[in-house]
Amino acid sequence: VRLALPAESRAIGASDHVGVVWRDGARIAVAGVDDGALGEPYHFGTRVERMCDGTASNDRRWGVGWRERDGRVWIVFGPTFRDGAGVADATATARVATAPAATATDLTWCAVASGDDQIVLFWRERGGDLSMNFCDRKRCSPLAPRLPPAISRATLLAVGCLRKGCGFVTRDRDDAIRLRWVVADSGRLKWTTTLPGARADTTATLVGAGDRQLALAYVAADGAHVARVDAKGALTELWHGADATAPALMWSQGQLLLAHAGAGAGDLATTVIALPR
Asked: Are both 247 and 123 inside the same structural domain?
């Protein structure tokens, strides 16, 4: 199916259809895709300045974020599965929430990620500080801790979250590639691990896989690696290929999907690995 999508589009999943989220003028639009065509969109926001990076979409919830012209950061989120409902029903029950983010003059960047059944919002202030905020199905937490300088001062390559915190893959000033785990409510750094053999110019992908583990992809001298990361930061290799870039990852209902280079030039291949919750 070929589909002409609006600019700055994001894909989300639902029980029976793929959904698309995009900026529609000064508002955010969400619509399902049915038989190769976009359905009637739902609209959110009033004076959208820009969309946040990333999309939250797993087997629990979907969500996207944006910044309004007054500087406030908002997210819209809804259930991915709701008694077999599709994108239209899931969007009709979506909620909109705002987070205690920085002011219009201070905020320079924002992003969203999945955290099991929660949506996680990130933002960077002009001074370089990074903060995160967890949002459940009713509201965003009043706690929005700043991330440790070891993360905010490094080059951020990937973020993946669970209900109790988030992992951050960074390129540090010594060119080492490290994965750090930060506790949700406090922003406390719990552990740090250096990715074995990672190239300084690696790309990376990190996603939550259920409620107790992460799935990680990165590139070493011998190609791309995909690994399971447990609650203490230990890595267990799941897949190894000759790719020069990290595979894209998506986890849902006990299965990890890898999108990686195929056999021919420009070909895309997919691999599914069992990874129980």
From this structure: no
